[in-house]
Design a protein that fits this description.
By secondary structure, this protein is mainly β. Helix content is 0%, strand content 47%.
Length: 131
């Protein structure tokens, strides 16, 4: 009669390796920062645009930017609205920023020059899960 031997049980992992760096797909917040350059006054603004035309969600903001200083805002995910972000200054067309990437801290630079207002992403890092 043959004997069947099961493999020995594995010891429980007490010090499991941390999850790979990156944002969780269910992250509830995003941090968006804007760093202004130059002497012209710039403003970082955001607005929640409702998916349902009959509702008006709160959460609009407009923050003044100072030269070479990061102005950050923590944005929460919404099921009923989407964020629209922009950088503005009087006399120039607004510079629209991409929608926030939840689970990440993204930093943009903004500069007003003779050619107009320009914005570019300069940094992106995961912020981890939010409990």
């Amino acid at each position: 009669m043959p004997l069947i031997v099961a493999p020995p049980p594995q010891p429980p992992a007490q010090h499991a390796a941390p999850a790979a760096p990156g944002a969780a797909s269910d992250s509830r917040s995003a941090v968006v920062c804007v760093r202004a350059a130059g002497p012209r006054p710039l403003f970082f603004s955001g607005k929640l645009v409702a998916k349902n035309p009959h509702s008006k969600p709160p959460g609009d903001f407009e923050l003044p930017l100072k030269a070479n200083v990061d102005q950050c805002n923590n944005l929460l995910r919404s099921k009923v609205a989407d964020w629209t972000l922009s950088v503005t200054t009087p006399g120039f067309k607004a510079c629209a920023l991409p929608p926030p990437e939840f689970g990440y801290r993204v930093t943009y630079s903004a500069k007003a020059s003779a050619r107009g207002l320009s914005c570019a992403q300069i940094a992106k890092a995961p912020i981890g899960t939010w409990k």
